[in-house]
Amino acid sequence: MDRRIIFAKDNNELYIELNIFYNIGLIILGLFAFLFNSFFSYIIWKEKLWKQSIQFVFQILTSISGTVLGLRDILVGIINLILLDSSISSYNFLVCKIKSSIDILILYVFELSFCFRMVNFTLLIGYPIFYKNHLERAKNNKYIIAIILFLAFTCDIFYILDINNTNDTKNCNVYSFMGLNYEHFFIALIIFLLLLSIPILIFGLYNVVKLKLNKTTKDNIVRLSNYYNFIYFIFLVLPFSIIIMSLFFKADKFLVGVFYDLTLFSVVVVAIVDFIFAMFYNKPIKDNTMKILKINSKISFMS
After folding, report:
1. Has residue 302 been placed in a domain?
2. How would you label 239-267 residue by residue, b for 16+ Cβ within 10 Å and e otherwise?
């Protein structure tokens, strides 16, 4: 079979990582994610922006995990193009378990950081006085980092301890090694987060609309809110909702595995877009980027 269009192994089990276009896409997006997010992290760290606002604490966690995710996609894409063969029915268990565990950890750190940043933005708009007096404090930075990493590592350890150790034919991805207990936990967690996020987003939109600010500032805040909502729904809510629905309807396990692989693909898009958006609508990032690159800009950005 022409390797360019392969989406399944010779035994007809679906495995998208065999496809050449998927892997080339992984490498290209991974390269952009690695470059953008490593530079993003460098700006925040070098200019000590994380001391100015806890938004940048969430951002540096997102950017560091985005950097690692980009590197992961580059390596996986290259390895797949070189080594994978549709005639291989199963893969080295230990290597794939390590790969899957790392994937889970990266996803949790990135997505928790991104979602916490959205909630933080909502609190900033809805309760500015409370936010300024209680949240926007340097001493909270270490607690934020500790909480996100604790949650991410706890979920990852749960995944590792519940890994499916049967000798059934497996693909080298997250779902192939997912145990039943972790699957139930994952379904409950995603449903809980979706139900929790909807009222938070509605509350945030309501407060953004009723803001009494000058038109330019309000337009920029609305634009930032729309960005968060669009990215959250299209690249996070939609992919994970498809996974949950496929699990509820007991879809073919290899098809569910494809959905997980595509979710990793969508998350790396978020990692790329995040820096591009910040360059246009985040003044500290824009100013420091221009300073580091020694570029003068006459474009007016959000204050």
Report:
1. no
2. bbeebbebbeeeeebbebbbbbbebbbbb
* 85 inside domain: yes
Residue with token string 């690692």: 68
217 vs 209: CA distance, rounded Å = 12
Q: What is the CATH number of the domain that holds 73?
A: 1.20.1070.10
Q: Could you tell me which residues come within 8 angstroms of residue 23 by beta carbon, excluding any fewer than 6 positions away?
A: 17, 76, 77, 78, 80, 81
Alpha helices in the chain (DSSP H): 20-46, 54-83, 93-126, 128-130, 140-161, 180-209, 215-231, 238-248, 253-281, 283-293
In the chain, what's the furthest Cα-to-Cα distance? 63
Per the structure, the count of domains in the chain is 1
Rg (CA), the chain: 21
d(CA 53, CA 147): 17
Q: Write out pLDDT tens, residues 75-132.
A: 999 988 887 665 665 677 888 888 889 999 999 999 899 888 888 888 888 888 888 8
Report the distance separating Cα 126 and Cα 203, nearest Å: 8
pTM for the model stands at 0.84
On the 0-12 / 13-18 / 19+ scale of CB atoms within 10 A, 18 is buried
How far is C-alpha 248 from the chain's CA centre? 23
Tokens matching residue 210? 């009723």
Give the long-range contacts of residues 131-136, CB within 8 A, separation 24 or more: 135/54, 136/53, 136/54
